[in-house]
Design brief:
heterodimer; A: alpha+beta; OB fold (Dihydrolipoamide Acetyltransferase, E2P); 21% helix; B: 364 residues; alpha+beta; Gyrase A, domain 2; Elongation Factor Tu (Ef-tu), domain 3; 2 domains; 6-stranded mixed beta sheet; 6-stranded antiparallel beta barrel; 22% helix; globular
Chain lengths: 126, 364
């Protein structure tokens, strides 16, 4: 798998061939607090970049999940729907949200690397 | 006026609190462990809550005091014994709820605990009813700390001798660091617990002792999930100036004599609703899956008609399912009635549920 890339909506992306795996960052999971509900996109559905592809809810509020990549959903992670607390326990590992078939590889270049994202997250705290 | 802070602000900060503005105060929403852990700690052990933003109003005076208060509070004041607490409301001319409150008879008058966001207006409304010889004072010199959960009694007894004798919805004066503190056995979580009214100067040393004895700090986030599981109303959500106690399914909080004789603000309207029944009523609602129906979610019948609205909703960590409360047309309000909730454009199965969602353990 490639080095992780990050979006301004606090998603992470890792790629293998033309498939991107997407989840939410540790920073986002901490901001949301205890996650108690996850809604994932339907397999086979197509999304434009920054389209709303899911929902996470903490005890406090609901937040939309956006796909940082245009393409078709190939797989979703049912285990985080069954036990949403996995998102807090392992946000950038076991709790990937969905896999998407990349339509346009150049979109990956628009995402941040880890150092830039960490700087971005720090500057945009609250 | 700017944002206000309670006497415990620095103490919360040192415990790693995340703050939010609430009713003009900077209040902890959660601490390091997060809302779910705080919720479970309260149910399984004990948690303390800083609720000093709430108003502690002392009203005192001559015989006319009770008569005056009965105009705006639908309780039978003759029935309230010394050191006994009652849940009630301030009622407006239309029968709507200006605020909900706990009132306790003490030597020389009554202590009234008011919601933070309502307290300034409440005091104006109460003052309007009082005769000139009656006095009222907002006790800004006092903090209010709640201790809730099954270990509350043993923790508090080890700090303040004698509290274990208190029964639910009763209070008394006790001593702490040579100061008088007033403690009631009450709370807002569905657990056994106490509320301690204590001078600001002693609030931090007292709370530190609670912490040293094992009680965990609990923020407003878990306070909300706890009260929702316990089926308790939150002003501004289930209750407001356009909702009366009968609609709120709280007619038990109007004393028997007052339900028969009236004589309080909005009686005409409330009398009608008591006799004829209400067109909409507060109920508990349990979504069938894990979907959370929050405030503002529309409720539909199986025929697709809109029949109500959700006023509070979250995920209940102890019942391990989503829980909501809302108002629904009376003919749909029976327990287990199948209804639908519209969340993000999709309709989801739910049922009308009995309240509370979580069974309480009060010491009677």
């Amino acid at each position: 798998m490639s080095e992780k890339k990050y979006s301004k909506q606090h998603e992470w992306v890792s790629t293998e061939g033309d498939i991107a795996t997407v989840g939410i960052t540790k920073h986002a999971a901490e901001l949301l607090g205890d996650i108690v509900f996850v809604e994932l996109p339907d397999k086979g559905k197509n999304f434009e970049k920054e389209g709303q592809a899911g929902v996470v809810e903490s005890t406090k509020a609901a937040s939309d999940i956006y796909t940082p990549i245009t393409g078709e959903i190939t797989e979703t992670n049912q285990s985080i729907v069954d036990d949403p607390s996995i998102v807090n326990k392992d946000p950038e590992g076991a709790s990937w949200f969905f896999k998407i078939k990349i339509k346009n590889k150049s979109e990956l270049n628009e995402l941040m690397n880890k150092a830039d994202y960490e700087k971005f997250a720090k500057e945009n705290q609250n | 006026m700017g944002v206000q802070k309670t006497a415990l602000y620095d103490f919360h900060k040192n415990l790693g609190a995340k703050f939010v503005p609430f009713a003009g105060y900077e209040m902890p929403i959660q601490y390091k462990d997060g809302i779910v852990k705080e919720h479970i700690d309260t149910r399984q052990s004990a948690g303390f809550f800083d609720v000093s933003h709430m108003g502690q109003l002392f009203v005192s005076g001559e015989k006319s005091l009770e008569e005056s208060l009965e105009k705006i509070i639908p309780l039978d004041f003759k029935e309230i014994k010394k050191n006994q607490s009652k849940y009630s409301f301030l009622i407006n001319d239309k029968g709507g709820i200006i605020d909900d409150l706990i009132i306790t008879r003490i030597e020389g008058g009554f202590n009234i605990i008011l919601n933070a966001a309502c307290k300034d207006n409440d005091i104006k409304e109460i003052a309007k009813c009082l005769s000139p010889e009656n006095k009222h004072e907002l006790r800004k010199d006092l903090s209010l700390i709640a201790l809730q959960g099954p270990k509350s009694e043993s923790i508090l007894e080890s700090i303040v001798d004698g509290v274990k004798k208190l029964k639910f919805m009763n209070g008394d004066y006790f001593q702490f660091e040579g100061k008088k503190v007033y403690i009631t056995r009450s709370g807002y979580t569905g657990e056994d617990g106490f509320e301690i009214s204590i001078p600001n100067t002693n609030a931090e040393s007292f709370t530190k002792l609670l912490s040293d004895k094992g009680a965990k700090p609990i923020g407003l986030g878990a306070r909300d999930t706890l009260r929702l599981e316990a089926g308790l109303c939150l002003y501004g959500h289930e209750l407001n100036q356009d909702i009366n106690p009968v609609q709120a399914n709280l007619k038990w909080a109007i004393s028997k004599r007052r339900r028969e004789e009236g004589g309080f603000n909005g009686w005409d309207k409330i009398k009608k609703d008591l006799q004829n029944g209400v067109s909409k009523i507060r109920v508990g609602i349990k979504p069938s899956g894990r979907i959370i129906a929050r405030e503002g979610t529309k409720i539909f019948s199986s025929e697709g008609n809109e029949i109500g609205i959700i006023t509070s909703g979250t995920f209940g960590p102890s019942v391990n399912s989503p829980v909501s409360m809302g108002y629904i047309k009376r003919n749909f309000s029976e327990i287990n009635k199948k209804i639908f909730l519209e969340v993000r454009g999709k309709k989801h199965d739910a049922v009308v549920s009995k309240l509370p969602f979580y069974k309480k353990n009060y010491v009677k």
